[in-house]
Amino acid sequence: MIADFFKRLTAAQDQPLTETDARLALAALLVRAARTDGHYAPSEIAHIDRILQTRYGLGQDAAQALRKEAEEAEASAPDTVRFTRAIKDAVPYEDRTAVIEALWQVVLADGDRADQENALLRVTASLLGVSDIDSNSARKRVEAAS
Q1: DSSP type of residue 37
Q2: Per-residue pLDDT, 104
Q3: In the 8-state DSSP scheme, what is residue 111?
Q4: What is the residue-level pLDDT of the chain in tens, covering all 146 positions?
Q5: How far apart are CA 103 and CA 48, in angstroms?
Q6: Could you give the 3-state DSSP secondary structure of residue 88?
Q7: What are the C-alpha distances in Å from 12 to residues 17, 19, 46, 86?
Q8: What is the dihedral of CA 44, 47, 48, 49, to 10 degrees?
Q9: Nearest alpha carbon to residue 82 among 29, 135, 136, 140
Q10: What letter does residue 110 receive in the DSSP assignment?
Q11: Which DSSP category does 91 fall into?
């Protein structure tokens, strides 16, 4: 199943991704952000589940199942570009800034902001076509809400 997902991510652009693929790409990107510092904290996992529940109207079990599938996809993915390309193609700019905000929620969930996480968010924002200003604003909104 994960192999099929990656085939669809790397397929020609004339084959648009399904909503399910875009969900999995976002969930995998959230997992990658949480794992970047080498510590996949329970608080980060809980944030991922809440983000998936809220963003997609999922129940707790469905959100956890999506996260678990995303954990497999993230572990199998050689780079972040595959996930960001899928999201960028499927999501309008305003919603991509919300993706960056969700990533900041996960990164900041454990109370520690590692250099690797900062670097991942800078690269991810750029790959999603989100400006540094909008990414910084998203981080400030998350910090203010904490």
Answers
A1: T
A2: 94
A3: S
A4: 544 554 555 455 545 556 677 888 899 999 999 999 898 999 999 999 999 999 999 999 999 999 999 999 899 887 888 788 888 877 888 889 999 999 999 999 988 888 999 999 999 999 999 999 999 999 999 999 97
A5: 9
A6: helix
A7: 10, 17, 35, 12
A8: 120
A9: 29
A10: T
A11: S
Sign of CA dihedral 115, 98, 14, 32: positive
- Strand ranges inside 21-141, DSSP E: none
Tokens representing 80?
Answer: 């972040």
Tokens of 42: 């329970």
Amino acid of residue 142? V
Tokens of 140: 């400030």
CB 108 within 8 A of CB 48: no
